[in-house]
Write a structure and sequence with these properties.
The protein is α+β, with helices and mostly antiparallel strands and 738 residues long. Among the domains are: 110 residues, Herpes Virus-1 (2-Layer Sandwich), CATH 3.30.40.10; 132 residues, no CATH class; 96 residues, Immunoglobulin-like (Sandwich), CATH 2.60.40.10; 156 residues, SPRY domain (Jelly Rolls), CATH 2.60.120. It is 31% helix and 20% strand. It has a seven-stranded antiparallel beta sheet with strand order 21-22-33-24-29-30-31, with no helix packed on it. Strand 29 and strand 30 form a beta hairpin. Helix 1 crosses helix 4 and helix 9 packs antiparallel against helix 10.
Length: 738
């Protein structure tokens, strides 16, 4: 029966190994140590959560140790910054003989845990800091050095499976067979040994405790069944530190431990949470397989395009250099011809002068001819010839007295000055680097009914045109393809954007065929609903004695404060100033709508929101001295009535803005004063969902909801505003496509 079960177990392991072999070959990249670039060997988990081989971290520390020794002086003492690593040798531990299987055996190959009762070296190494090969951030191993690191058994097991898949033809031999050993069929995780069928039956007889041992397929990777704490070697880890992101024991959490003030959770809870997160993320990636494949295809196309563009750029560079070579060769030829012509002319002059001087020698040239003339005895013939000859002799005599070469031997005028050209050639660079990246002006760029994007080019550069790119960012941060718009100026209005979405914008400049890199991306969030267009109503409830409306009817100012000052001489007792209401000229009966406005910073009290038609009639028909905002819901005043009679749904909702502050109405959620007072946004948005009976107030700069509540939308709803004292309201102007 045992043999039958073993055969079934071995068969299932073999089948699983075949399946695993197909998938494991694709993950080799994750199994490579960032330091040695080879498969992990006894990987350790660094504080930054990256993995590194045990031997690699030792080599890094020894390298730092040697560098300190190189810098130190000859008379350095024991206080010099030497990094000591007191970790047992791997080779020594690997040579440990197999123990008695009955003995509790918790050995790890880097010496973090060993036999029960084994005590670590009592020497405390100094703090060791080195750069992580994975992220290049400094890693502080603390006083315990390597001894304080966990061994990544899970990664080690996966690496071992990969090694087995890679060396499927290499058998693992039985550790207890007499020579020659037989091929092992299983390995015991409790005994840390591999067995053939016969040896397994001998050392694990049926009906004994050893028969309960855990056995797997043949392997050389034996890990302890219980993970022990590196800080307290006799304690098993049973908690998880959320701050340090590592398992700890109960002694680490107790007073005096390194994690005493840290937030910890149970190992089962951490296991469940991390497994759920990992499974969720893996399922998400698996669900995005088609997207990943499309992006891989896009990357392949980009690689091919890059290769083609690179070759084209090389050809263009060669062409430009060949043109320079042609110019240099042509210039070289003309310069050499000029030098040769000057040299020939000078040599001819020297040759002529030399021949003349040779004629002054006896029996040569002019002197010889004169000597022959002197032999003439006929006086008339002699005088006829001697006159001209005498002039020549005199000229030769004078030149002999003041010798001057017929030409210069120096070619100083023909020295080529290439210093300027050499400097220019030394600065030879790519023309595309001469056009800077345009910068998007975040202050002048905004989104409302449309998106307005403004940018500028550095003053030293001028671009012929620009290309504005934009794309939608999904809620799961999925990036869609870029849309491109060619622009001649430095601003562009983008229309037909979806509501309540994030959009990324970037721009690049073109100068001829040269393109600059893309600018830094600007992320804008569109309003949660289509923009609702309206103007202030100058008829319904409008008080022209206190309010001043401009001709466009998109701006209103309150003059109540000025009238109060004119009548101040008659005021001897408390005087009450009422609210002056003004509403939009268009009502809402369905759908989702959004509008925005700006409140002037000098405004004392402004109320804004929505109100139903019947509520507005009630306000506007009531006498002004009878309606006090102290007893109205959402008035912004601290009245006791608001604490007791908060209605979950009412026919209006108004928030208070004033003195550069935004006041959230009191509610069970916002009860404390410090939670209800916010800085006044530059622009305030109002979102009304008529069908769901919900109204929200937004900070337009960040498109962030500041306050939201239910509202009774059983009748027509209007944008409503009210002012008290001096103040001003400006409706946000729609962004026109022109």
């Amino acid at each position: 029966l045992l043999q039958h079960e073993n055969l079934k177990h071995f068969t299932s392991i073999t089948v699983a190994a075949v399946i695993f072999k197909v998938t494991i070959k694709n993950i080799e990249r994750e199994l490579i140590c960032p330091a040695c670039k080879e498969l992990f060997t006894h990987p350790l988990i660094l504080p930054c959560q990256h993995n590194i081989c045990h031997k690699c971290v030792k080599e890094l520390l020894l390298t730092l140790d040697d560098s300190f020794n190189d810098v130190g002086s000859d008379n350095s003492n024991q206080s010099s910054p030497r990094l000591w690593v007191n970790s047992p040798s791997l080779d020594k531990i690997d040579r440990i003989n197999r123990p008695d299987p009955d003995l509790l055996y918790n050995v790890t190959k880097q010496g973090l845990t060993n036999y029960t009762g084994w005590k670590r070296n009592s020497l405390t190494p100094k703090t060791t800091i080195f750069p992580c090969p994975g992220c290049e951030h400094d890693v502080d191993l603390g006083e315990r050095g390597i001894n304080g690191l966990f061994r990544n058994f899970t990664l080690e097991t996966i690496v071992e499976r990969y090694r087995q898949a890679a060396r499927a033809a290499t058998a693992i031999m039985c550790d207890l067979c007499k020579p020659p050993p037989q091929e092992s069929t299983k390995s015991c995780m409790d005994c840390s040994a591999s067995y053939c069928n016969e040896c397994f039956k001998i050392y694990h007889p049926w009906g004994t405790i050893k028969a309960q041992h855990e056995y797997v397929g043949p392997t050389t990777n034996f890990r302890p069944k219980i993970l022990m704490c590196p800080e307290h070697e006799t304690e098993r880890v049973n908690m998880y530190c959320e701050l340090c992101r590592r398992p700890v024991c109960h002694l680490c959490k107790l007073g005096g431990g390194n994690h005493s003030n840290h937030r910890v959770t149970t190992m089962s809870s951490a296991y469940k949470t991390l497994k759920e997160k990992l499974s969720k993320d893996i399922n998400y990636l698996i669900g995005k397989e088609s997207q990943v494949k499309s992006q891989i295809s896009e990357l392949n196309l980009l690689m091919k395009e890059t290769e083609c563009n690179g070759e084209r750029a090389k050809e263009d560079a060669i062409t430009h250099f060949e043109k320079l070579f042609e110019i240099l060769e042509e210039r070289k030829s003309s310069v050499l011809k000029a030098i040769d012509a000057s040299k020939k002319l000078r040599l001819d002059k020297f040759q002529t002068q030399m021949e003349e001087y040779q004629g002054l020698l006896e029996n040569n040239g002019l002197v010889g001819y004169a000597q022959e003339v002197l032999k003439e005895t006929d006086q008339s013939c002699f005088v006829q010839t001697a006159k001209q000859l005498h002039l020549r002799i005199q000229k030769a005599t004078e030149s002999l007295k003041s010798f001057r070469p017929a030409a210069q031997t120096s070619f100083e005028d023909y020295v080529i000055n290439t210093s300027k050209q050499t400097e220019l050639l030394g600065e030879l660079s790519f023309f595309s680097s001469g056009i800077d990246v345009p910068e998007i002006n975040e202050e002048q760029s905004k989104v409302y009914n449309n998106a307005l994007i403004n940018w500028h080019q550095p003053e030293k550069d001028t671009a012929d045109s620009y290309v504005l790119e934009y794309r939608k960012i999904n809620r799961d941060q999925e990036m869609l393809s870029w849309n491109e718009v060619e622009v001649c100026g430095t601003s562009k209005v983008i229309s037909e954007l979806e509501s309540n979405c994030n959009y990324a914008f970037r721009v690049r400049a073109y100068k001829g065929s040269i393109c600059s890199p893309c600018s830094r991306e600007l992320i804008l969030h569109t309003p949660p609903a289509p923009v609702f267009n309206f103007l202030f109503d100058e008829k319904c409830g409008y008080n022209n004695e206190h309010l001043l409306l401009n001709l466009k009817r998109d701006r209103v100012e309150s003059r109540a404060g000025f009238n109060l000052l004119l009548a101040a001489e008659r005021i001897q007792v408390g005087y009450y100033t009422s609210l002056d209401y003004i509403i939009g000229d268009v009502g809402i009966t369905k759908g989702k709508h959004f509008w925005a406005f700006r409140v002037e910073p000098y405004s004392y009290l402004v109320k804004a929101g929505v109100a139903s038609s019947d509520k507005l009639q009630e306000w506007l028909r009531s006498p002004r001295d009878a309606v006090s905002p102290r007893y109205e819901q959402d008035s912004g005043h601290d009245s006791g009535s608001e604490d007791a009679c908060f209605d979950s749904s009412q026919r209006f909702t108004l928030v208070t803005i004033g003195m550069k502050k935004f006041f959230i109405p009191k509610s069970p959620t916002f009860n404390e004063a410090e939670n209800r007072v916010l800085p006044m946004p530059t622009s305030i948005g109002v979102f009304l969902d008529y069908d769901k009976g919900k109204v929200g107030f937004y900070d337009m700069d960040h498109m962030k909801c500041l306050y939201e509540r239910q509202v009774d939308c059983s009748s027509t709803m209007y944008p409503a505003f009210a002012l008290m004292g001096s103040g001003g309201i400006q409706l946000e102007e729609p962004i026109m496509t022109k």
